[in-house]
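Bench notes, afternoon.
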Amino acid sequence: MRLMQKDAERTVGSRPSATAVQTALSNIVGHRLDENHWLFDYRTDLTDALGGAAGVDLTRRALSKGQVRDIMAAVRKPKPREVVHQQKRH
């Protein structure tokens, strides 16, 4: 959680609380429009900052099924700096 707060602080300018980060992430909900399209109706500066920190674009309201799949795959993969950081701790 602290890493997400720190990454958001760089973009937004102030460090959001853990509750604010949790609330923002839990409010990002996709509504299925049809077989291949989803609508995301919640967006704030904080969600934009968190998406930027994760390396994904959360600024679009409508996404195809493939775009959602690509975002989920990108979020699951660790960034190179995270892998290096994890290796140093062991």
